[in-house]
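seq:
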Amino acid sequence: MNQPDAQKTLSAAWTRIHHSEWNQIAWFVRLVNTDMTKLSEGDLLKWKEDFRAMECEDSDLGIFQRPSENDVRYWKPNNLPVRSLPNLPALEDMQEVRSAVTQVLTDLADGRDTDGPRLYAEYYVSFKKTSVSDEKRGLPRYQIMRCEIGQPLILYSETLPIRLALLLERHAEKVRRCLGCKQIFVQLKKTRKYCESRCQARTSMQKLRKRRKDLEDKKLASKNQKQDRRSKGAVRGKK
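struct:
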C-alpha cells in the first residue's frame, strides 16, 4: 500500500475510534469484548487498520510530562525523520495485545488491584549554554534538553498495552462492569451502571418479568395451600 492510501486508512480508522482519551479507552474495551476469530474478513481488516492507527497516534501521553511547545527554554530538534507507517498486525499480534490488556481491564472493572506493563527507561536533563548572539535576540541564558532513553518498543504487544496504561492513569475509575450483560464498559457519568440504555431497559424488563412470575408463583402456591386445607377438611368431615 502506498503512502497516500495508507494515510486514508488512518483517517478512516480514527473516524471509527475518535481521538479523545475516553474513546481510545473505549476502543480497548471493545477489543476485550470482541472475539477476533469470529470476525468477517472485512471487519478483521478494519480492526487491523485501527491497530495501526493507535500505534501511530502522536499525543501527549509521554512517560514524563512534556514541556509546552511555546516554552522557548526547551530545546527542540529540527528536521526529524518522518516516521514510516508500521505494517498491519497479524491476527496473532492482535490476540496477544488483547490478552495483555484483558487482565488489566478486567481487574479494574471488578474493583481489584492490578499492574500495567513494565517499561524500563532512563531520564536526564541537560542545560545548553545559549550563544551570546542568541541571548541578545531574547533567548534564555540556557536551553533545557530533556531526554528519555528506554528499551525500543517494536511490537504491537509492547506499544499498545503501554498506551492503555498511560490512558488509565487518568481514567482508571471509569472502567466498570455492566450490571446487565456483565461486559466491561467505560463510564461517561459516575452514576452509570449499564453499558448502554438498551441493556438497562432489557435488564429492567427481565427484572419486571421475574417479579411478575414470582408473584404469580406465590399466588398459585397460596391457592394450592387453600385447596389442600379444604381437601383435608372434607376428609375429616366424612370421618
